[in-house]
Every structure is written in structure tokens, then in C-alpha cells.
Specification:
With 329 residues, the protein is mainly beta. It has three domains: 105 residues, Thrombin, subunit H (Beta Barrel); 96 residues, Thrombin, subunit H; 103 residues, PDZ domain (Pdz3 Domain). The protein contains seven helices and 20 strands. A hairpin with a 4-residue loop joins β5 and β6.
Length: 329
């Protein structure tokens, strides 16, 4: 919700303030300034990011910046370009944090993506094609919450879950840009777009990345804990059951709450406990779990070697299982 100070500003004022904190990202330093360049968007790695800390951390998509330790180039609103190094990334979330050597930067305000409602107005900001169309603003509404997308790459299927769906226009170069409320709060990071349908774009909820941003902001580091499982929430199950490439889930599998443990990492933290494949985890340390992002968001607040307590349903039996978190490689 907007406060009194924000109510005195127009939407144009707020969008202008936000666009000043939006950056351009490229994997090549000299990309030229023309959209008629023979190099394609994917070759150049053109994309968008946002400044999230005053000490130079840039939030974007992993497919824009590259994986951890990758190099890319960050161009600020004033035209200054910095060398960037990816400090953290996650391919499952398609998110990354890139560090540039800069201080006293103005940064965006992060909203609460757990409180969003279908029908609310939103704006997407990004660099949809290239230099000439940098910081393009489009408007729309939140069309749906907790959407799941199946992505087929190199004959391998993956799933992005808990996405925000919007009809704000999102083109490839928008990737990594902010989805904002009219008060300027960032509630999501735009990502993949369904090319076969008009007016369907997606954003990753901002809450998932908040603990990581805060850790880098205060310590310039983030020690990532892991529970050592591969799991699905109920929104993914229909995709799995309809797939011709997977058959390890029961065709009749369904559940109302929790997340389904599909695989336990060998020699990982959960492998040393009574947790079993096929279990449904309903809560962790009393926090209810219904999506994989619920689990990720909580684990990101913990450190390796800390203990968590899972509540688990196994058939008609309820169990509590204690797990000591490991370090994610």
C-alpha cells in the first residue's frame, strides 16, 4: 500500500524514480547501439537488472548474467558501464546477483509478493530490444498467482513454479527487469514469456530472494544451506503425470497441501534421516509449506549445520523429522 509521501507523487514520478535504478546488462562489452546489429539478443546477452543495494549488487535473471563467477557488463542510467561478476545464481529460480565496484547507489524498494492480489495494477520496466528502447515501461494487471511453467531445454524438462502471471508486455530483453506496483515497490523479476500466446508474461516473486540480498548487503557473502531433496508442489504434479519422459510418479498422485519429496540427494542432509521419497512435507519449523518457493525462502534464512524440524505425511501417518542442514555446493 502507498504511504502519505508516495500519495503526493504521480505514477509518472514514481516510475521515473524506479527507472533510474534499472540497468542494462550485456555479456559483450561493445555491443554497439543499434537494434539493427547482426548480433542477436541471445548472442549479446542483452537484458535488464535492478540495483538492490547501495554497495553495488544487481538483481537479474541467471540466463541474462550467466552462472556464478561469470562476467558481464552493467550499464547504469547515467550511461556509465561497469565490469560485473556474478556473486550468486540459481538456475532453478533463474535469478542472480551481480556485484559491481560502485558505492552510494540509489536502489529499489522491495515489496511483499506474498500479499499480491489478482487484478492489481502493475508496471514492467526493461530493455525489450536493445539500446534505442532501453527502460521501456509497459502496464497491466496481475493476471494470476502461483503459475507453473514447463521448460524444455536440450531434451531436458524443468519447471518454474510459483510465478506471477501478468498481461504487461514482456519481450526477451525485459528479462531481469522489475515488475512494480504503482507505488514503486518491486514485487517480481520478469522472466520467460510464452511466445505462442499474446499478453502472457511471468515474474518471479521478489520475496524468494530477499534473505540473499540482505546477506550480501551486510556481509558481502551468502553461505547457502540445503536440505538435500528434490521436490514438487501440487501445481507441478499435473505436468509430471502428463509427461512422456517421466514415469516415477503415480498417475493418481494428488494432495491438498505440502510438497512431495520426489528424490533425496545421496549422502545429503536428508539421506541421513528417516525422510523418504514419496513423503509429503507440510511444514518446516512450524511454517506451512505449499510451494517449493515456501521451502526455498525459509531455507535461505538458515545457515549450514542448523537444525530444522519437518512435519511429514506418509500415507496415513504423521511424522516429525529433524534434519541438520548441509552446505550447497
Amino acid at each position: 500500500m502507498q504511504n502519505v509521501e508516495q500519495n503526493s507523487k504521480t505514477i509518472a514520478d514514481i516510475i521515473e524514480e524506479t527507472t533510474n535504478k534499472v540497468v542494462g546488462i550485456s555479456k559483450l562489452k561493445n555491443t554497439g547501439s543499434s537494434i539493427f546489429s547482426k548480433s542477436t539478443e541471445s548472442e549479446l546477452g542483452l537484458g535488464t537488472g535492478i540495483i538492490v543495494t547501495e554497495n553495488g549488487y544487481i538483481l537479474s535473471n541467471e540466463h541474462v548474467t550467466g552462472e556464478k563467477y561469470s562476467k558481464c557488463y552493467i550499464t547504469l542510467e547515467n550511461g556509465q558501464t561497469y565490469d560485473g561478476t556474478v556473486a550468486w545464481s540459481d538456475s532453478n529460480l533463474d535469478l542472480s546477483l551481480t556485484k559491481i565496484n560502485a558505492k552510494n547507489l540509489e536502489y529499489v524498494t522491495l515489496g511483499d509478493s506474498n500479499q499480491i492480489r489478482v487484478g492489481e495494477s502493475v508496471y514492467a520496466i526493461g530493455n525489450p530490444i536493445g539500446y534505442e528502447f532501453r527502460r521501456t515501461v509497459t502496464s497491466g494487471i496481475i493476471s494470476a498467482k502461483n503459475r507453473t511453467i514447463k521448460i524444455d531445454e536440450e531434451e531436458k524438462a524443468s519447471y518454474m513454479t510459483d510465478l506471477i502471471q501478468t498481461d504487461a508486455t514482456i519481450n526477451p530483453g525485459n528479462s531481469g527487469g522489475p515488475l512494480i506496483y504503482p507505488n514503486g515497490e518491486v514485487i517480481g523479476i520478469t522472466t520467460v514469456k510464452i511466445s505462442s500466446a499474446e499478453g502472457i508474461g511471468f515474474a518471479i516473486p521478489i520475496n524468494i530472494i530477499k534473505p540473499i540480498i540482505e546477506s550480501f548487503k551486510t556481509t558481502n557473502d551468502f553461505e547457502e544451506a540445503t536440505i538435500g531433496i528434490y521436490a514438487y508442489d501440487k501445481e507441478v504434479i499435473p505436468y509430471i503425470n502428463s509427461s512422456t519422459t517421466t514415469n516415477f510418479l503415480s498417475a493418481n498422485l494428488s494432495f491438498d497441501k505440502g510438497i512431495y519429496v520426489a528424490q533425496i540427494t545421496k549422502n545429503g542432509p536428508s539421506d541421513k534421516t528417516n525422510l523418504q521419497e514419496g513423503d509429503i512435507i507440510t511444514s518446516i519449523d512450524g511454517k506451512e509449506l505449499n510451494t517449493m518457493n515456501d521451502l526455498r525462502e525459509y531455507i535461505y534464512t538458515k545457515k549450514p549445520k542448523e537444525e530444522v524440524i519437518l512435519k511429514v505425511i506418509r500415507g496415513k501417518i504423521n511424522k516429525e523429522i529433524k534434519i541438520t542442514l548441509g552446505t550447497k555446493n
